């Protein structure tokens, strides 16, 4: 539609044809009975006028330039829509990645508890443990099974949402690797800031908005001057031919487009202010996103240490429980601690990868990401 506006802006005004026909009455009431009948040219006056309006003071050129700049803005707005769609797809993909990781965790934990259930059945038969210990182990297994089913249902629902975002009905495969997003995509802060200023379509669109406001100001000033309409006249009157010219030129005495000119000046100031404000906003957003990314990166390292400790404790308590050197309560507590630590670790990884996505989005470098 924006490109169609360029075509419309380049169109010239259509020529105007004007015809007037006057006939002297015939018959006995005619003031000139000797001129003959109705078809006699002496009884007619005809006016043929052919004129065309001319757009003065470069109006057509300014209209074309305005439409072209507006087309550039539209293209950048479309690119910004694509950038936002890419962000939504990336975040939804990452969300599914987290569900996938948690389902893998539940499957592993369930397998470990299921093995323990089978062991405890044998130990109960040998009267090594009490029935309540076996029941508690089974309850924990059922709890993990319920969580796994709920997570799977949420995963499948969100997978459909991703298919809608992608506009596809094909089966999608979610990568479960921890190295889903490469750290190599993250550049130094000053480099990413330069990339943002060069590539962000909203910055480019506002920059074009400045150009558009300048062209609009020139166009409104041109509209203050009237267009010229000129042409020729052929006027045969009572069989006598007359020729002449036609010219009309409105005098800009009252209406000099003052309101639109004033509005154009305000819009120019507004676009310049908005452009500088956006540059400052991008700089702040990028700095904040980069700081968040570094913090989330440190969080993963800290949570990794906690996870290693909880895993070590679980192995020690599990071995002690199987040797009857500790209670089922200690074991279940160690199991829950390890499970919670794994959930926290998966969440920390998710938060890190999300901060990477948001950082790349702010820098308009998200198109480098391959899912």
- Name the CATH architecture: Up-down Bundle
> How many domains, in number, for the residues?
1
Strand content bin: 5-15%
CATH names the topology as Outer membrane efflux proteins (OEP)
- Number of beta strands: 4
Protein structure class: alpha+beta
Total DSSP helices: 7
Brief summary of the model shown:
This protein has 371 residues and is of the alpha+beta class. It contains seven helices and four strands; from the N terminus they run H-E-E-H-H-H-H-E-E-H-H.
Description:
It is a single chain. By secondary structure, this protein is α+β, with helices and mostly antiparallel strands. The protein has a single domain, classed as Outer membrane efflux proteins (OEP), CATH 1.20.1600. Helices cover 66% and strands 9% of the residues. It is built from 7 helices and 4 strands; from the N terminus they run αββααααββαα. The chain has helices at 2-10, 59-125, 131-166, 189-199, 201-223, 258-322, 328-362; strands at 16-23, 44-54, 228-234, 243-248. A 4-stranded antiparallel β-sheet has the order 1-2-3-4, with no helix packed on it. Helix 6 (258-322) runs antiparallel to helix 7 (328-362). The longest helix has 67 residues, at 59-125. The radius of gyration is 40 Å and the shape is elongated.
């Amino acid at each position: 539609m924006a490109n169609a506006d360029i075509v419309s802006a380049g169109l010239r005004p259509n020529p105007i044809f004007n015809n007037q026909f006057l006939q002297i009455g015939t018959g006995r009431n005619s003031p000139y009975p000797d001129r003959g009948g109705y078809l006699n040219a002496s009884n007619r006056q005809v006016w043929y006028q052919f004129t065309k309006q001319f757009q003065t003071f470069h109006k057509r050129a300014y209209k074309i330039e305005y439409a072209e700049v507006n087309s550039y803005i539209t293209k950048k707005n479309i690119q910004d829509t694509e950038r936002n769609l890419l962000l939504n797809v990336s975040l939804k993909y990452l969300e599914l990645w987290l569900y996938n990781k948690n389902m893998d965790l539940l499957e592993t934990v369930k397998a470990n508890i299921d093995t323990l259930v089978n062991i405890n059945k044998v130990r109960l038969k040998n009267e090594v443990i009490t029935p309540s210990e076996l029941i508690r182990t089974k309850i924990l297994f059922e709890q993990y099974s319920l969580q796994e089913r709920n997570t799977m249902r949420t995963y499948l629902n969100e997978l459909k949402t991703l298919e809608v975002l992608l506009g596809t009905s094909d089966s999608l495969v979610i990568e479960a690797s921890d190295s889903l997003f490469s750290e190599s995509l993250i550049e130094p802060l000053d480099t990413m800031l330069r990339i943002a200023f060069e590539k962000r379509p909203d910055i480019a669109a506002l920059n074009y908005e400045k150009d558009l406001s300048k062209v609009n100001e020139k166009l409104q000033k041109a509209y203050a001057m009237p267009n010229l309409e000129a042409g020729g006249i052929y006027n045969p009157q009572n069989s006598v031919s007359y020729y002449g010219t036609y010219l009309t030129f409105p005098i800009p005495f009252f209406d000099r487009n003052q309101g639109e000119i004033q509005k154009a000046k305000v819009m120019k100031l507004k676009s310049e202010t908005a452009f500088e404000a956006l540059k400052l906003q991008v700089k702040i957003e990028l700095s904040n996103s980069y700081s968040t990314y570094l913090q989330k990166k440190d969080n993963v390292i800290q949570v990794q240490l906690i996870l290693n400790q909880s895993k070590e404790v679980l192995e020690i308590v599990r071995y002690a429980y199987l040797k009857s050197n500790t209670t089922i309560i200690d074991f279940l507590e160690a199991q829950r601690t390890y499970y919670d630590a794994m959930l926290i670790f998966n969440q920390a990884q998710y938060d890190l990868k999300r901060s990477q996505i948001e950082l790349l989005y702010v820098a308009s470098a998200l198109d480098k990401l391959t899912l």
